[in-house]
Structures are given as C-alpha cells and as structure tokens.
Amino acid sequence: MEAIRRADVAALEPMLAEEFVLVGPARQLTREELIGAAGNGAYTIEEFGYDEIEVELYGDTAMLSSRYHQTARFGERDVSRVYFVTDIWVRRDTRWQLVRRHATLAED
What we know:
Blueprint: H1 2-5, H2 9-12, E1 16-23, E2 28-30, H3 31-40, E3 43-58, E4 61-74, E5 77-78, E6 81-92, E7 95-105
Parallel strand pairs: 1-7
Antiparallel strand pairs: 1-2, 3-4, 4-5, 4-6, 6-7
C-alpha cells in the first residue's frame, strides 16, 4: 500500500504475482489494472494503516488476515473505509509475491 501511496510502480510490480487479483466491494482488479491505477494517479491514498494482523504460514504460502483502513480515492469514487482484508502470498525463489487480495467492508 505504501508503494501505491507513493505511486511507485517499480516497487509495486515485483510484489504482485502475474496472476494477482484483487476482489473488493466495488469490483475486481487484475495486476495490470492495479499497477495502472497506481501509476496514473487513479488510485490515490492519503493515509492507511493495518490493525489486528494475523499471519499463518503454510510452507511457501502465507495467509494474512487484517483490518485495514484508508483515506483514498479510486478515480472519482471515495474509497475511504475500514476493510477486512485477506491476502495470500507465495514464496517464489527468494521473494514473496502477493497472488490474491480479498477485501470486505467492515461494519463499523
């Protein structure tokens, strides 16, 4: 999220696996769509943070569950909310890559 906040595509690209997909309340985004939105300013994050992070490691796969909040815009839409997020990371060679993110609106 820090790479997106900084619009740092060079930092974001190696973190996201080729098959990456983000499924959120509004829509589904592919790797290319998320990188494009970060790079062209369509996804702008003013502030963000993670709370209540839990990590479960299964060999070369990790699942992270968290409560995430952001002050942000995606295009014309205000996406400043609190979300429950589940991330699936896979270790490939010597680095971890995010393959899937699922975000659901938190109810408070």
